[in-house]
User: Fold Ileal sodium/bile acid cotransporter from Varroa destructor.
Amino acid sequence: MMSAERTGKCFNKCVTQCVAVLYIKSVFKMCPMVPISLLAAILFALIEYASGEGSPKLFFYPTVRTKGSNEERIQLYNGQILHVSFWTNETIRPSASSTSYDCKVTSFSPSTANVDDCHVEYDSGNQRLNGSFRASADLLGHTDIKVIIFASPNQTYINDKIHTIVVQKQSVAQHIFLGSIILLVSLNYINMGCALDMNVIKETLRKPIGPVVGLTTQYGVMPSLSYLTAVYLLSQPYLQLGLFTFGCSPGGGASNMWTVLLGGNLNLSITMTFLSTVASLGFMPLWLFTVGKMFFNETAPRIPFRNILTGLVGIVIPVGVGLIMQRVCPKGTVFCKKILTPFSITMIVFIVIFGTWVNLYMFRLLTWEITLAAMVNVWTGFLIGLIAARVSGLSWPDAVTVMVETGIQNTGVSIVLLGVSLPKPDGDMSAIIPVTASVVTPIPLTVLWIVLKILRCLKGPAHKEAAHDKEDVRFLSAHNNEKSSYSG
Assistant:
């Protein structure tokens, strides 16, 4: 009976094949491309069937969706331990030889996220496989996690993977650091406002050689320099974007403090910082939407106008308070001017130490290429700013001011721009460039400050004290004369 049944099946198969061959031959005589198209369609259908129905897939939980796509991925916060569940996408009817299952989980980048403790079991109620594994986030970045399910005896039943990202969650220490920086910088701007001379600022704006040179180096040289440095020294697109965005940012608040320490022109420094921040509203979009397009492949840059305007308000209000103090409290103004230098030193030390500790996790991403690119960009900016100022005929204090304003960028603006423009964790990872630049910035300035201190000590401390006393007497005399003229 089995022989007759088998003979019948073979006969039917042969008849079917003969009919198919005769049909293809007849069609081929009409049009040679028809059978080729038919065979291609059958082949594609078989491939899709094999990849879709023949290969069971896994669902994972918890997952997040990528912006602009339907891709699901696992998201971990740096230092987080997460238990991930998974289950099959189809029902399973196990045979007697494959009723037990085992699983293996691996991470393509264990330094980013490590995985272990994988187990799986068969749920007879819904006839699916359910399992879980443990994922431990250790470093910002991307990785793929692969899960292999074995059906005994040692046969691979499912081989699936899911993309995983590790992002940074802002800590309490970072919030404290940000709040303390805002407070201390505002207090220091009040001190600077007490030291400003509006007559000098007006004269500077009448003959704006310094501001013009500074804006030229700030928004002409620095973006070009950062572009070349990014292209030739960095390989990752998100790092290139981080450096270019940093180079297009306005001057930072620390530039005013360094101007005070290096004996620069504080009036010119405040003026240039304000003008640079205002100019960034136009120059940053200009650079980022033209040259920056090569770095923004899938997303468009989002300029943080609110943060820039907030920075302007953060300069104008405390400086205005200092200017008012010059009118109503001249003796207090003299005191604020005297503590300006030590307060600035304290500020810089606080920013470097506390800021390094808060962002310590980022230094695990640090490479020699990132460090070299940051040093080349910032230190070359200092040198070009100093040379351009001296060639333009500016005095040494004004040249030092232009140098500082050119090389020191507003890291906050660049970090916010990268964070809102790039998907996580690329925005967090690209911020390593501004952070590294802020760390290497004080090195040449500290060396210059030490050299200048040595030279001033060689000239004698008495000369320095006499100069300060003479300046304070001149300020009080000018204030008294102004009051007497008003009363007259």
Observations:
- The mean pLDDT is 79.
- The longest strand covers residues 155-167.
- The chain has two domains: 58-167, 172-482.
